[in-house]
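User: two proteins, same treatment. go.

Assistant:
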Amino acid sequence: MKKLFNYFFIKPTNKLFFYLTIKLNKNLYCYIFNFYSLLFANKTKIQYRENFFHINENNYIWRFFHRHQGLMAYSSGLIKRGLKLKEEYLIKNINFNENDEVIDCGANNGDFFLCFEKKINYTGIEPSKIEYSNLYFNIKNQTLINKALYSNSNSYLDFYISGEYGDSSLIKINEFEEIYKVETITLDDIIDKISRNIKLIKIEAEGAEPEVLQGLKKNLSKIEYITIDCGFERGLKKESTLVACVNYLLDNNYELVDFTDKRIVCLFRNKLFKK
């Protein structure tokens, strides 16, 4: 019965709401978002002000801009968003301590930060102008970088913007809204400045994951865990980066400790760290 309900009601309802999100004006979208949230017994509500959408949850204000992405990510609330990402990125069984170093590659609005209950040292890297502005608003007293991770630093590369679905990439894609130049930086550059071991790096680069890893050479031994979205998002052919990422890390003393085919996410552990 539940499967039939999902198939004949939940899925069609989701499709309708997601389609409407990019067709409605901003204020009407808020009503749709809040109704959708209420429909599924959530208390999350949003308001539109100063050109952005704002969530107020337990006196914590969170901001986003793109309507389709916002409904998809936040209609169940910020706490559930964090729990979902812990599942998707396979980190729910990792024991984090206060002041652990976590690097978020492709931070977008900063959602990955919602995974952590303990006080961590967070570094978020996001090249998109709009998403970075949200990241800066949402995440306080942490290290935030408005550049693109790549295999080399100090280059300026074309960045293809597909913000509504969070699919912007350095690799040319089929559908994009605009192109502009972004400055590149490497993970080695970032870790050099941290000067400590890194507990976890999350990599979501919309198909540029191999290039991000290629910018991580001399500091590979300092990282305990790396979780990577290797889904079918690379370039015009929408290829997976699974093989390239797995081969790179297996060749550099990492082991694959978990995998999910829901988003093609892999979790790697550095063999140099004690279990």
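Protein 2:
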Amino acid sequence: MPLDGGCTVRGRRLLGANKTLRGALVMVAATVLATAALAWAGGAVHRELSVADLQRNHAWLWGLLLGLGYILGELPNSFTKRQLDIPPGAAPRHPWRAFFWAFDQADSLVGILVVLAFVWRPDPAFAAVLLALTLLVHPAVAGLMVLLNLKDRIG
């Protein structure tokens, strides 16, 4: 079931067929489970390295916010690309190619930071480190997914 329910704007899909309810639910559930498992396995180290009380004391809720932020952060990008007739997973032609590449890498981080802003706000230096890591890790994970045949291309 597509998140946009098949709705269109200007004759174009709102988000496209690749943004599904199943995908959103799996992403959020997996993030909740992963953060709860990491908090449990990390014990005292997790409590020491946590950046917010919510993360320290309610890892599952922290994971829920991370998962929701990730999904919500991708939606404006998908909407924009559909309205510009850029197919899902495709890159636009020059001169927008570099902009959309960076946007594709960082959109979820922006969504996460917006959702977490209700419970935590990183200082600018920490946010810059998160952005730099995102620009490195996101394509690396995509490359791994290509190697595992879970994805067709890196970006």
